[in-house]
Every structure is written in structure tokens, then in C-alpha cells.
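User: I'm putting together notes for a lab meeting next week and I want to include a structural view of one of the chains we've been expressing. I don't have a solved structure, so I'd like a prediction I can at least talk through. The sequence is below, exactly as it appears in our construct file.
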Amino acid sequence: MDIKIKFVLVAKILELCGCNKENAVYSFITEFETPTHFSKTYTNSINSIPNFIESASEIFCQKKTNIAKTSYELQKTKENQQNFIQLINENKDLINLTDITLNDNKTKIALGIISNIYLESFVRPVQFFLPHSSACSGQWSFWENDNYFKFLEKINGKKFFIEFNEEIMKSEIWGIKFKPEDFPEIIKRRLIKEKACEKKLDSNAMIKAMIIRLGEIAKPNINYEVIDYSIRNLFTYLNTNKYLRVDREIKFLRMFEKEVIKRL
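Assistant: Thanks for the context. Below is the predicted structure for the 264-residue chain, given as C-alpha cells.
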């Protein structure tokens, strides 16, 4: 998916979760791919995310971290520091950013990175669960009903970004308000008790929901133990020990996927 499209969509997802849209700039951190830079296979793996967060905090937020100075992620992030800043300057007007103060909040950085990877799975297979599973996540049903290579040619056309962006920004998905009755009875009761539908979507829950969805759209099927381990491992790093309910976030993502796919 075009970097501009992903940047705009990541910013909208962040806003739905009550996060500053400027954290969308972290979606750029895995975008550098040349023979001497990041491999997409590696950078799109959940296993790499903690070190990318540490690298971003140290380089762009001047925060002291415990990442090894010889770390691959740190070295490559340093190497691409100017490219990263250039991407921000080239694209910030797309989401009406003026003064940008980069935030070192781990959850917000993680949501920016994972949102970018999740969006990538709309246009090509992503091996998100490496090294524990080599299965590729992607919109397989959509691809199987289309000529995949003509599809890639279309979405890389000059007019596609303008047309897609105009259409997706008009979608009602961005103003979605869930109601308890939208869910099964047992979930409905909990949502009413917690008054959850009155709140914004939760950033941590959105991260978990994206990991689950990337597992659900994988081929071949991924054992849930791998998905669960990946969630636990990342949230241990993020210092989030609370069990996260993701009913609203999962429902949002399934609706969001339909909105995106019908415009691709």
C-alpha cells in the first residue's frame, strides 16, 4: 500500500484511539528497503517491534534506552534518520501537521508501527509472526477474486491515492459509535456495566486486535498459541499487564477492512 495512504489511515486510527495523530510518523520507521537497509520480512515481524520502539525513542526523542549500541535496528534507524525526517516533511500536510513533537510513549509508537504493518497486509502477504510462524497474513479472499498483479498496477497508479483518499475519508467508519446491542448478550452486559461504548477505542486494545486480525487472516492457519504468545510478549515489553477486552476494536477492524477493500 502506498506510503501516503498508510500514513493518512494510521493517523485516523490513532485519533479514534485518543492518540495524537502526529504519532503516525512512526509508521515510516519500517519503510526503508534497499539491499543494504531493512528487509521487509524482518521489519514487518512483531519480534522486531520492541527494538524499533527503543531505537525511535533514543534517536528521535533523545531518550536514553537500554538498547545495545550494536543493535541492528538502532544502527539502521540511525542510518535512515534523515530519510525519516524527509518523509515527515514531505507528508505532514496530508494530515495537517505543523509543529511536530515526537512522543516517546511506547504504546503510541507501537500502535503507529503495527497499524502500518496491518495496512501493508491489504496489498501483499506479511510474515508478521516470524520466527514462530512463517505463515503469511493477507487479504487472501480479496486477492483470489481479482487479478493480483493488475491490482498492484492499479494501486500504484498516480490517480489512485487521490481517489482512494477522497473516498475513504468520507466513510462513516471514522464517526462510528458502537451500541451495546451491536454485540452478543454476554458482551452487551459487560459493555453496559463498564459504559465502554461511551469511550474512545483503546490504544492497547487496538494493538491486540490488530495482532489477532493478522493471525486470523493468515494462510496457512496459525495456531492460537503463537498469536497469544506474541500478544503476551509484546505487552510484557509495553508494561501492560491488564487483560484487554477487544470486542469493539475487533468489530471496528472487520468493518474497516470491508470499507478499504471495496475501494481498492
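A couple of points you could mention at the meeting. Residues 3-261 form one domain. The chain has one domain: 3-261.

User: Perfect, that's what I needed.
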